[in-house]
Specification:
The protein is α+β, with helices and mostly antiparallel strands and 316 residues long. It folds into two domains: 3-107, Immunoglobulin-like (Sandwich); 115-315. The protein is built from nine helices and twelve strands. It has helices spanning 113-117, 147-162, 165-173, 211-223, 244-255, 272-275, 278-284, 286-295, 297-303, and strands spanning 3-6, 20-23, 28-34, 43-46, 57-61, 70-76, 83-90, 93-96, 102-107, 123-124, 127-132, 178-180. Strands 2, 4, 7, 8 and 9 form a five-stranded mixed sheet that branches. A four-stranded antiparallel sheet has the order 1-3-6-5, with no helix packed on it. The protein has a three-stranded mixed sheet with strand order 10-11-12, covered by helices on one side. Helix 2 crosses helix 4, helix 3 (165-173) packs parallel to helix 4 and helix 4 packs across helix 5 (244-255). The termini are far apart. Bound molecules: zinc ion. Zinc ion binds next to helix 4.
Amino acid sequence: MAHLVPIPLPTDYWRPQLNSTYVNNSGKCLIGVWGQVGGYGDNRIGTEEDEFNDDLDSQPISLMGLHADVVVYEVRGVRRGHKLMLMQRNGTTWRRFSTNIVDISWNMADVWEWDFLAGKLPRCKHNAKISYYPFGSSQRRPVPVPEDVWMRSIEHQFDIICANPLGQALVKMIDKDVVIHPWIKSYHNANSAVKFSPQDWSDDGPWGSAPHEILLHELIHVLEGNYSGYDDRYGFMFDKSDFLSVNATNVYSCLLGRGLRKDHHEFNKLPDEHFNNPKLHYDQQEPNYDKADSHTPDIVRELQKYRSVWNPFIYC
Ligand SMILES: [Zn+2]
């Protein structure tokens, strides 16, 4: 097993000793790893809850004068209470591979923590259940985004969504607290935790990949309680969780005159035969439509109101 060590290195760094640390004004944190096995692609600093490698960004960096048996990681997105460990790839999942766990006692650059604890984070003007926790956006790779810019850009995406009657209805349906954090990793993605940075996406991106479509997609996961009972059918891949998120967003996109997304793999175009014949889509995916209808009937009832666009939900 490996262990985490402080930077600068103590002389007896080969001995596990680091159980707690804080993050300075940079908002980034240096952590050393002694005893790492395998390459950089198979190791990262993470937390046990972070099963998809989404929460923190950890980059191995080399520092002059350090010992060859220590890898130094720069970790971004760390907040108080995170419990850091070395995670090692085990097939398609990650497992803990450090003997010690390092508790983050404080992050000096995170000025939002007290607002969060006091329930005073900035709130979305379209639904007060939704609030913003901007820490991390100015540590993002490759291009940092100032926190106020990140927050305004999210609100702008909500304005776009809520200018659309379906988008507005879905946003209003959120009735439990949702905190939106920046997506800080260098590759673009978003998740239903909800971590999202509009700067990762292009307004004229293809088939469901405009920033407001990505945001609405993640909010649908929230509304579904991250339901994951869907099936892949007829060559449409939904990865268990992404049938309603993709297809409800398709109805929204069609209302805006945008192109529609086929499934959850990449951002491919919905085939013409399904676009021109929504009943074919319904017939092939009927078990998935049934699941959406029984799991989240409120969403399906709302979708059924929109009859002038591509909308297989009207057959439910
Ligand atoms: Zn999704």
